[in-house]
Amino acid sequence: MSEIEQAAAAQPVVPAWEYAPAPEATDIVKLKDTYGLFIGGEFVEPKSGRTFPTISPATEEELANVAEAGAEDVALAVEAARSAHDHHWRDLPGAERAKYLYRIARQLQERAREFAVLESMNGGKPIKESRDVDIPLAAAHFFYYAGWADKLEYAFPHVQARPVGVAGQIIPWNFPLLMAAWKLAPALAAGNTAVLKPAETTPLTALLLAEVIQDADLPPGVVNIVTGAGETGAALVDAPVDKIAFTGSTEVGKAIQRATAGTGRRLTLELGGKAANIVFEDAAVDQAVEGVINGIFFNQGHVCCAGSRLLVQEPVYDELLGKLKDRLGTLRVGDPLDKNTDVGAINSRAQLEKIGELVASGVEEGAFMYQPPCELPERGFWFVPTLFTGVSQSHRIAREEIFGPVLSIMTFRTPEEAVEKANNTPYGLSAGVWTEKGSRILWMAERLRAGVVWANTFNRFDPSSPFGGYKESGFGREGGRHGLEPYLQLEGRP
Ligand code: NAI
Ligand code: MG
């Protein structure tokens, strides 16, 4: 080796520029050793006598023990919700219900930093996302639906809008507090009471929300929170509730649909996705690169509407791919609590294994994998941001939801071909279109079978805008005036 070669070999591989560590302090979060169930306005010990540990996926450290609700506990929570509904909540004037929702929204804002830190500790998502997206949007949902509570007669004119009753709500681990807000805010605004089951890997912000609910003096039983895993969820589906709202895997969604079929109970399902992000040759390429990166690497790709299939028009393929690879190399992967982190920890070991298995199938089926040089922390669950080229539509990585930081890239020549490839999926939750032509955006939006179509942006959310899917992505809409409908009986509707 020459001297120059030796010097080069001694240089560690470093990214283009280095950031000093900028960890968010965690002392604002006061963890309890053990959390009970939140039933009838109080934290109670589970009748089941069981608890389970909840960890930080970034360090694998145990954060707390959480009660595991059995069928008897779920029944008590449903009774509390029923009693609160029948004897109080449904008869309150809408303006009174709104006051509580506004109170919860304001307290979420006041305690935003505490919620953001806890969300990142328990779920592994970057603090800049929990701080700038999850928590503000959760508060925004409570504010938004508070505004509807006394305006139901204007939202649904010429009909009597009455609450459905008790809602059983089962949520996933990718946006723990935000999903709780999506479920609770419209249900409560419409006069329903609720039993919420958080996901087993991320129960802590829902339990902090229970404290906020207590501080807001929400009447006991209006919101009940039962922690546990799939068995607890299944017990809630079997309990005498009037409506089930579920967000999670298509597999469990189908099981819930079977269980509720013929029972007369209402059901909404928000399930998986395999969204196409479509870049036309006339798109602003740098802007599209940022949108594609945000579309798949936001929240480690644990997003049902993630842009996991990139469709690129052939003339810009080489340019776009080069820029995407460069951009991938600048993503900072690591400590979720570091303010500079772009990609945090994978939520659980099980999810990491699922991502690994699907990525291995991509290599095996003949696609080309690209991963930038990337150092991962020794402990915890991590996955390097990954691209696949040479992907065909029959590959599993083009068909199945990976729910991780993995992008499958394909090309197209004509708009018709883009539509055909984009719609060639059992899912239909979201899509993205990148082009400078407004007419093309409208032409595409009409033909894409997706609940949401973003144009020259991706992963944009607002409480006033309805969200939901087609086909195996589920049915029912959340957000906006549409999001109230699943929680209302509209009597006298023509
Ligand atoms: P999952 O569907 O099993 O879990 C979601 C929620 O349902 C959790 O609260 C869980 O405890 C509950 N649950 C599980 N089994 C149940 C049952 N039999 N009855 C009632 N509730 C039940 O999802 P999982 O296993 O965490 O993730 C598997 C895959 O699902 C992911 O890799 C991803 O592809 C997809 N997924 C999609 C989500 C979305 O936002 N649409 C969210 C989470 C997962
Ligand atoms: Mg599961």
Notable characteristics:
494 residues, alpha/beta, Aldehyde Dehydrogenase, Chain A, domain 1, seven-stranded mixed sheet, binds magnesium ion
Folded structure, characterized:
- This protein has 494 residues and is α/β, with parallel strands linked by helices.
- The chain has 2 domains: 34-271 and 471-492, Aldehyde Dehydrogenase, Chain A, domain 1, CATH 3.40.605; 276-455, Aldehyde Dehydrogenase, Chain A, domain 2.
- It contains 16 helices and 20 strands.
- The protein has helices at 3-10, 71-87, 94-110, 112-123, 127-148, 152-155, 176-189, 204-215, 230-238, 250-260, 285-297, 317-329, 349-364, 396-399, 415-423, 438-447; strands spanning 34-35, 37-39, 42-44, 51-55, 62-67, 160-163, 166-170, 193-197, 223-225, 243-247, 266-270, 276-279, 309-313, 368-370, 386-389, 406-412, 430-434, 452-455, 474-475, 488-491.
- The strands form 5 sheets. The chain has a 7-stranded mixed β-sheet, sandwiched between helices. Strands 9-8-7-10-11-19 form a 6-stranded mixed β-sheet, with helices on both faces. The protein has a 3-stranded mixed β-sheet with strand order 1-5-4, with no helix packed on it.
- Strand 10 (243-247), helix 10 (250-260) and strand 11 (266-270) form a beta-alpha-beta unit.
- Helix 4 (112-123) crosses helix 5 and helix 11 packs across helix 12 (317-329).
- The longest helix has 22 residues, at 127-148.
- 52% of the residues are buried.
- The mean pLDDT is 96.
- Residues 230, 249, 252 line the site of magnesium ion (MG).
